[in-house]
Amino acid sequence: MRIGVLTGGGDCPGLNAVIRAVTLSLLPAHELLGIERGFWGLMVDRLRPLDAAAVRDRLDEGGTLLGTHNRADPFAWEGTDRSELAWQTCRRHALDALVAIGGDGSLTIAERFGRQCGLPVVGVPKTIDNDIEGNERSFGFDSAVAVVADALTRLQTTARSHGRVMVVETMGRDAGWIALEGGLAGGADAILLPERPFALDALTDFVRLRVAEQGYALVCVAEGARLADGAQSWQQLPGGVARLGGVGNALVQELGQRLPQIEARATLLGHLQRGGAPTAFDRVLSTRFGVAAATCVREGAFGVTVALQGDRVVRVPLALVAGKNRRVPAAHELLNCAAALGVFV
Ligand code: F6P
Q1: What is the pLDDT of residues 161-219, one digit of tens each?
Q2: 3-state SS string for 160-173
Q3: By CB atoms within 10 Å of each CB, which of 112, 181, 219, 253 scores lowest?
């Protein structure tokens, strides 16, 4: 078979490890073509052979050797449906199947493309946000959490030295997983999640008390966090995607007005959470996902994404994943852990 491989959406640590595992598992029996910059490469015909030499040394390398694109949707590219163009590229290269490594957006596109054009597709769940339906752990998430934990640990020493409130803003879009696990791992005093809109009065009282008790406070806020009684104003981008970011600074201003005697500072971690090498956990998970996706191809199990459930890599129908978003449930064990430790969550 001749198999196309693409990476779509925001990059994350572990993408190259998946490409490596898919390629090394399928060679030499099958032929692999790397598609550049996600579905964009199918629209403009940018494909190149993937061989062992191209992937062998990539296990620990961040980013994606194929490049990626955040908004390359062939069904809505610059206001036009270009899916037929993308499908023509697949036919021109005689692709028998596609391995699509992407987040909720790219997997949704892959499912639709496979269904409408008849191309057999296997998905691999990628995102630091950890918000893909049917999958308990996407690769890249552990690496992002490690960055948040390290940042909080570093900020704790300077917060304590100056008697300040340090606010750390994490990524995650509408899901609070990065802030929740990163906040717990970094010893945050307050963790603010999109799933749990918070009241400023209650947070202010908590911070005042915490500073009185221990001399400083660490707040970990997810970029999608919302006030209980307010709306979030996001910058709307072409293609309908909202750009988040800035809630940490807004929070510091609010706290500064409400607690003028306590200094507060914000740190926006931004794309630091996506860059760099994958953790050992993510290297292993990426490798497991890549091998499992290759097995799907060999066994003709298409229209599925590989996923982690418990400690097992399973197959989940792409149709069940498409268009969905996995968020922190109300009674999640980690929320109980945080509450048991007196964390404001
Ligand atoms: O979905 C991954 C993610 O990193 C989000 O956490 C974040 O909101 C978004 O991508 C940022 O995207 P961009 O790279 O376009 O700024």
Answers
A1: 999 999 999 999 999 999 999 999 999 999 999 999 999 999 999 999 999 999 999 99
A2: HHHCCEEEEEECCC
A3: 253
Count of CB atoms situated within 10 Å of the CB of 153: 13
Q: Which residues form the pocket of ligand 1, taking CB atoms under 6 Å from any ligand atom?
A: 10, 70, 103, 127-129, 171-173, 223, 244, 274
CATH topology of domain 2-139+278-321: Rossmann fold (3.40.50)
Determine the straight-line distance between the first and last CA of the chain, rounded to whole angstroms: 50
- The whole model's pTM is what? 0.95
Task: Measure the CA–CA gap between 167 and 220, rounded to whole angstroms.
Answer: 6
Q: If you measure from the C-alpha of residue 200 to the centroid of ligand 1, how many angstroms do you get, rounded to a whole number?
A: 26
CATH number of 144-275, picked from 3.90.1300.10, 3.40.50.720, 3.30.70.270, 3.40.50.460: 3.40.50.460
Tell which residue, 21, 16, 14, has the closest CA to residue 293: 21
Indicate if 129 belongs to the active site: yes
- Residue whose C-alpha is closest to residue 22's, from 67, 54, 62: 54
